[in-house]
Write a structure and sequence with these properties.
230 residues, alpha/beta, Trp Operon Repressor, Chain A, five-stranded parallel beta sheet, 10 strands
Length: 230
Amino acid sequence: MIFDVITIFPGFFHGPFNFGVIRRGREKGLVEIRVHDLRDFTSDRHRTVDDRPFGGGEGMVFKPEPVFKAVEAIRQTEQAEVVVLSAAGKRFTQAEALRLSKASQVVVICGRYEGIDERIIEHLATAEISVGDFILSGGEIAAVVVVDAVTRYVPGVVGKEDSILRESFSDPAAERQLVEHPHYTRPVEFRGWQVPEVLISGDHKAVREWRRQAALKKTERNRPDLLAQP
């Protein structure tokens, strides 16, 4: 699949896309990532991408013209996903990562400043996504998060694809999503703290049950909001 990332800081991505799962996908030819400078799609000599918001207020807002030009030049098909990264968007989830992974092309628009012109969201984007209930300086960090999460679902990128379904939030058939169970490795004892005996018992049925209960307890402790969902 192809990711097209639109940003005013293309140099930001020189590092993040060259490591781990994303690098593996690129080296295998399963994922292509193209980074585009939004300023290349402006028409004035100052390469202006933003302006003051109508109605007053602080900050600057991305203008619609360069963003529309960029997407229209990059988009290879009308079925391409066009994702705006914004603190005001819907929360990014594992289910959304899986949905996006089924697209042949995902165009990612990295927001900056106070926001972007709403006409981009209403008439160009297919999704407006937030990676969490906090504010980042821009969408570049969020873009790395989204590309990484989606790339993991591209067939052939992750060596043991079944392991993806055992990670936190990753069972689409589950009645409710849970965080993943705790993990332990050698040594069995470290500073007086023991690995749970069931994990070294060899009883696979008991291990599966322990992991299910442990995942539930960890979800109750760290993400009770998941259990409160209908």
